[in-house]
């Protein structure tokens, strides 16, 4: 395994893992964090947060959402984005607001709008379960604890798609979970409980929640596990290491120039914040004794948005097949040059 030589100011790691087709590989991961302002200016942050090695939960892992998602998976098939932040009402007495994320590439666009409302409860009505009076909206953290899901307190069953949420009443007839969700898809908000509610959020999903564990495919048999140290089989979803919701998966990798629009996330400002994602220098080089240097190109496969901190983080990843990195100790160096990472109106020589 080569030695990682990180000459950049960005966090970088070289880790063992497996490819989608279950081949052993080494994966180099680089993380770049940028600050932004409400006028759309992006700058590389002076303090670069480290790569997140493991999931971190808000509370008990079986019944809470993620504070942080692991960033060190061995591969992603295309890019995805996820967001941590807060919804802010436009006026003090408002009972609702909307938040919107829009990301646009050369020939694709993804737009997602969530409705955020004040605290309220389900109540029984002539037409079934309906929403009670909605309180004025306070600044609201966009967590899965406030969207549809959670536990039926009488049976102890939890919604597999979101065990951390609120308002889950199986069948829609018995009123066991009275707290109504405060975060929903704008296009699906209804005054009555229909039973077709679904969790609505921007944040990454824990691996044990249904949208994530479905990507694992069929579990391997004991015999197959004994024959291979790779934990997934041939039927695994190519998005096995993607952690964002399905409607936040992009059709391509991020290459720079994409337009990002954020609305409803900033106190005192309801106008859209418009950002242009930076292009990047993405080549790393593997040097070995008595061998020609090999160049590998990093792909930007993750955009992490934190609207509270006004920061974007971009994750860049490349796989080195095992046959390229099997060598004696100290017989090779994978170099992350000072130029790797986002470029802000600067030009660097790739050599």
TrEMBL record:
It holds the Pfam family DUF2169. It comes from the Bacteria. Residues 23-317 form the DUF2169 domain. This is DUF2169 domain-containing protein. It comes from Aliidiomarina soli.
């Amino acid at each position: 395994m080569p030695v990682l030589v990180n000459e950049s100011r960005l966090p970088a790691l070289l880790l063992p893992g497996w490819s989608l087709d279950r081949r052993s590989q080494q994966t180099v991961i680089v993380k770049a964090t940028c600050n932004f302002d409400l006028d759309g200016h992006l700058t590389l942050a002076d303090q670069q947060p480290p790569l997140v090695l493991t999931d971190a939960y808000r509370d008990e892992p079986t019944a809470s959402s993620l504070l942080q998602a692991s960033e060190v998976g061995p591969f992603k098939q295309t890019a995805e984005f996820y967001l941590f932040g807060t919804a802010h009402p436009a006026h003090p007495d408002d009972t609702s607001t909307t938040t919107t994320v829009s990301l646009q590439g050369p020939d694709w666009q993804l737009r997602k709008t969530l409705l955020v409302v004040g605290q309220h409860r389900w109540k029984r009505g002539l037409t079934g379960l309906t929403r009670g009076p909605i309180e004025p909206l306070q600044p609201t953290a966009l967590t899965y604890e406030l969207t549809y899901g959670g536990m039926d307190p009488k049976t102890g069953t939890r919604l597999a798609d979101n065990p951390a949420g609120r308002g889950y009443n199986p069948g829609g007839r018995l009123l066991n979970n009275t707290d109504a969700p405060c975060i929903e898809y704008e296009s699906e908000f209804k005054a009555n409980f229909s039973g077709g509610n679904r969790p609505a959020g921007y944040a990454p999903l824990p691996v044990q929640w249904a949208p994530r564990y479905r990507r694992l495919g069929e579990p391997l048999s004991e015999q197959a596990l004994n024959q291979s140290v790779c934990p997934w089989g041939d039927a695994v979803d190519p998005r096995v290491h993607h952690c964002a919701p399905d409607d936040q998966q992009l059709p391509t990798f991020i290459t720079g120039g994409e337009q990002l629009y954020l609305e409803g996330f900033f106190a005192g400002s309801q106008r859209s914040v418009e950002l242009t994602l930076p292009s990047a220098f993405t080549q790393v080089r593997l040097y070995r004794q008595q061998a020609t240097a090999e160049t590998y190109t990093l792909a930007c496969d993750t955009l992490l948005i934190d609207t509270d901190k006004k920061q974007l983080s971009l994750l860049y990843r490349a796989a080195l097949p095992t046959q390229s990195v099997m060598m004696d100790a100290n017989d090779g160096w994978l170099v992350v040059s000072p130029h790797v990472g986002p470029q802000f109106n600067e030009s660097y020589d790739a050599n």
